[in-house]
């Protein structure tokens, strides 16, 4: 004959099942949250890069004509539309080679942050602080980087 498990044994088995279920659910949430945080940051950086390339292309076409960066007209008009459409962008600036701001739209006084180690590829630098992420795109004329 087969003896039925006691009530205390059933309660212990149910408790163990719920503990395993809870731990599995917590692990799934932890991994999912970490993955979402990692991919969200990369998505943000790529979005900022795309917005910056709009300005970069407009300014570089001016620079390739042999004109100096300080004479570029329309920086504010171009960047204000981008700033209005994307509230996550605090400021867009053009700096000279020495790091001095030439044009700024949005929040004033944001300086270039220190470069992040490993935050650079062939055309983009990533700079971060606790408050800001900066995507730095070079401005080139035909011969050199001018900003």
Write the layout of secondary structure elements.
Blueprint: H1 7-64, H2 75-85, E1 91-95, E2 101-106, E3 115-120, E4 125-128, E5 133-136
Antiparallel strand pairs: 1-2, 3-4, 4-5
Explain this structure to me?
With 147 residues, the protein is α+β, with helices and mostly antiparallel strands. It is built from two helices and five strands. The chain has helices at 7-64, 75-85, and strands at residues 91-95, 101-106, 115-120, 125-128, 133-136. A three-stranded antiparallel sheet has the order 3-4-5. It has a two-stranded antiparallel ribbon with strand order 1-2.
Strand content: 15-25%
Major beta sheet summary: 3 strands, antiparallel
Read across the widest sheet, the strand sequence of neighbours is 3-4-5
Low-confidence stretches: none
Distance between the termini: 88 Å
Report the C-alpha radius of gyration, rounded.
26 Å
Write the element-wise H/E pattern from the N-terminal end onward. HHEEEEE
Number of helices: 2
> Rough shape?
rod-shaped
Please report the total strand number as a whole number: 5
Structural class, by secondary structure, is: alpha+beta
Helix content: 40-55%
Overall pLDDT score = 85
